[in-house]
Amino acid sequence: MQRLVIAFALGLAAGLLPSPPARGEHALCESLRGARIVAQDAAGTYLGKIAARSDSDSIFNRFGPYGDKFGGKSIWNEFGAYGNAFQPDSAFNPLATKPPKVMKGEQVLIYLTVNEGIANGLSPAMLKAVCESEF
Length: 135
Fold this sequence. Notes:
Layout: H1 2-13, H2 27-32, E1 36-38, E2 46-49, E3 101-104, E4 107-112, E5 121-122, H3 124-131
Parallel strand pairs: 4-5
Antiparallel strand pairs: 1-2, 1-3, 3-4
């Protein structure tokens, strides 16, 4: 949680994230709404987006290809390349060197990773806990 707060504060200070929106919406979630998740593999594989559960491309849609825990391009698939604990470009590898990027346009906002050594990293589980119900 401390890492999330620090990353958020740094984002605000750098002007990367907007000021907190009105009506109590979570500022971090709002700043990531619609952002694409892209693997740092050779192909730059699209891994879905941060959106409402009803969106077929959302990582929060457990019936869609990017939110399904068995999907080949899902960060939630613990047996897949992007969600297991061993691949260098997996969000859940604590030693990942190339975790998935969260992007808007060509700008990288954060990295989805459990590797605490990655600057601007955010745990996928934290993202889900904080933002899934915000959309």
